[in-house]
Batch of 2 targets.
Target 1
Amino acid sequence: MSRFFVATWKPDTASVRSISVLAALCFCFLTSASHAEDSIVLTQGTHGPLWVTPTDHPDCAKESFVVRGESLLVTGSDFSAKETVQISIEQGDVKQPVQSGSAKADGALQASVKIPVETATETKTRLRAKGDTSGTTLLSDEFVIFAAGDTDGDGMDDICDSCPKVANADLADSDFDGIGDACDKCPNDMENDTDGDGLCGDVDPDPYEAQH
Ligand SMILES: [Ca+2]
Ligand SMILES: [Ca+2]
Ligand SMILES: [Ca+2]
């Protein structure tokens, strides 16, 4: 009578944690190695990530800011071979088709998308790419579009201005939250009234518990 033994490995918690960290590091390396550092990291689609790389990007701009009228390089994968892909801009409930392109034979998408000049500024924006036949949908992370030029005439272009609509040439920002003192509802509270009770954190007896 023969006997069979099945070797099993039951990793302890430390091993699982180490493997998870290693896998995360490998993933970060692979993704960062294949995309420019100023790509807007677009993470959540129904099938996978969509990547956006701003072109002609001002030095002062943050990764998630783009200028209205700027061209964006949009890339993704997992579409059907050579299918037509519709790319649209989403701002809340407003969805605006902006471009259609064709996936390559391997299902990869690479398209240049110009942000329409009529697109609303200073609101959360996403790009969506959807394949006509496969239904594959890639969705971007949120980014914010700024108008080209210097709306308030204070010498700082909107995309670089901590208060794009209020003249504040000194760009003072006491709480370092990226919003200039001149237009910051809580200029000394970088969390900007996190409990939403109308009292800024620097004068709120309990910044994390709404006062009633
Ligand atoms: Ca300005
Ligand atoms: Ca300003
Ligand atoms: Ca501020």
Target 2
Amino acid sequence: MKAFGKASEGLRLERIKASPQWGDGAFRNQRPVLPGLRDPQAPRPTVRDLFYGGDRRVPVAPLPAVDPRDVWVRPAGTGLRATWLGHSTVLVEIGGVRILTDPVWGRRASPFRLLGPKRFQPVPVPLSALPPLDAVIVSHDHYDHLDYPTIRALLRRDPLFVTSLGVGAHLEHWGVRPERIVELDWWQSVTLPNGDLAISATPSQHFSGRWFTSRNATLWSSFVIRSPRHTVFFSGDTGLTPQYETVGRRFGPFDLVMLEVGAFHPAWGDMHLGPDNAVKALDMLGGGPFLPIHWGTFCLAMHPWDEPAERLYAAGTERGLNLMMPMLGEAVEPQRAPDGVSLAGDAQPLSDVQGGSLSWRAALSRRLDARHPAPTTGLLPWWRAATEGVASPPQPPPEPAALPDSMPWPID
Ligand SMILES: [Fe+2]
């Protein structure tokens, strides 16, 4: 099946085998990761939990979203603008260059049309409405980051694909011209043709594979994007790794930090951050305006769909993080706080959204006044608009009849 992709061979495979990250026939993390290893007391989810367990796994109503096209036609005033389009898909406009991360427009994070995690939230704009792209970053080959129909649809635009070692075999198999693919090992960089924008692959702690037979045959990475004025971090998928401190030292300070916060479980702490570890990761990277990704789009774990946002919102309010949580499609321009200055009091991102598209906020704000204590920051928990009418608190997944002999890995 075409969506499974293709195994590396020839020179590509030789390059893979020469990577310091390769050993015993597969890519490895700096330290071994196993489900449950870091928290053996955590309850172990079963396959049944993954697909059927837990309440409030998807919102009862669509999330608020805005159409960013009117904003995109104007250049970013500060030279750096980000538009979250759902899950880990973000359009980053930096120094006049447009870079799209982990583009997924498909209906399912799956190789199958009728099977697998289905998106509960549409992308706020069709792929055809995107402005011209200079580069596409693909962090790793999991289905919720590398989507076959989306790559096919991007072919006409002919962007430069910057990705992790081995992932290029999939892209080439699907029709991307080899000269438009740059595969990086950790700490390697590519400079875009305009000459002053560089993309670097940096470590992450995760795994890869599009089928049972292809586990860890391709590399997983985070990425740093640098223009003369701005530096941006994109996590891809990762667990908490001390390598982030090295990334922060080498590339920080960051003007924008995008970290995954959704699809987590205590027993998967090695492979996904979740909101609590994302805050720790932000610290390790040296801080910066924080835009959470990998939530609000697909149901890939057992927690309620809004738990990543709520936990992050609470942590951000308590700790005074410069938290940016734009709505889907809401283009924002982050601004780094001067050294020693917290933006906690006015953490509302600069928004370019025009017109009356934010009028829902007034209504939501009134409801929040009655039902939820007002936050101390300027950030409104807009996602609660999709939970109105759901009174039940998050429930733990039902106890399985028996624990399985082996723990299922996350599917992303
Ligand atoms: Fe993943």
